[in-house]
Write a structure and sequence with these properties.
Elements: H1 5-9, H2 17-22, H3 27-65, H4 75-88, E1 98-103, E2 106-111, E3 113-118, E4 123-128, E5 131-135
Antiparallel strand pairs: 1-2, 2-5, 3-4
């Protein structure tokens, strides 16, 4: 029994390998794929600085939570410090974005702000919610609000 050329190529090790080598990716598909990847990279690079600045603000807030004078500082003073730091980081935080709640021996600071990013073809609103909770040492004076 003699094997036909087609039967030889259909062995377990060569199943379909001959047909796949002949097919190439069309040039337009490769260009489109690289274009999409480049666009995604450009969006990532344009949004990254804002996320890093928000991270730096959160780190600053975490440091505030451990400050000894936090319990004695007024709400307006705390807001002022936070807004000043946000301005240094070029973040659009205003005093109205910051909520401070004092209950018993704890202080909770919450913020909500939006950064509008205008990309080439699209506008993206990035919503951030940094904050912290801290326990005030016993015997610390209650600030004037």
């Amino acid at each position: 029994m003699t094997a036909t050329p087609d039967a030889k190529n259909m062995g377990a090790g060569n199943m379909g390998a001959g047909n796949m080598a002949a097919e190439k990716l069309p040039l337009w598909r490769a260009i489109t794929g690289f274009g999409v990847l480049a666009a995604m990279a450009a969006v990532l690079l344009s949004l990254t600085p804002t996320y890093l600045e928000n991270y730096r603000l959160q780190q600053y807030l975490n440091g505030m939570a451990h400050e000894a004078g936090l319990g004695a500082a007024s709400d307006d003073a705390v807001r002022g410090e936070i807004v000043a730091r946000a301005r240094e980081l070029s973040l659009p935080v205003v005093p109205g974005d910051i909520r401070i709640a004092r209950t018993g021996g704890a202080v909770k600071v919450e913020m909500r702000y939006v950064v509008a990013m205008n990309l080439a073809l699209y506008r993206v609103d990035l919503h951030f919610h940094p904050g912290f909770s801290a326990t005030i040492a016993a015997g610390a004076p209650e600030p004037a609000r």
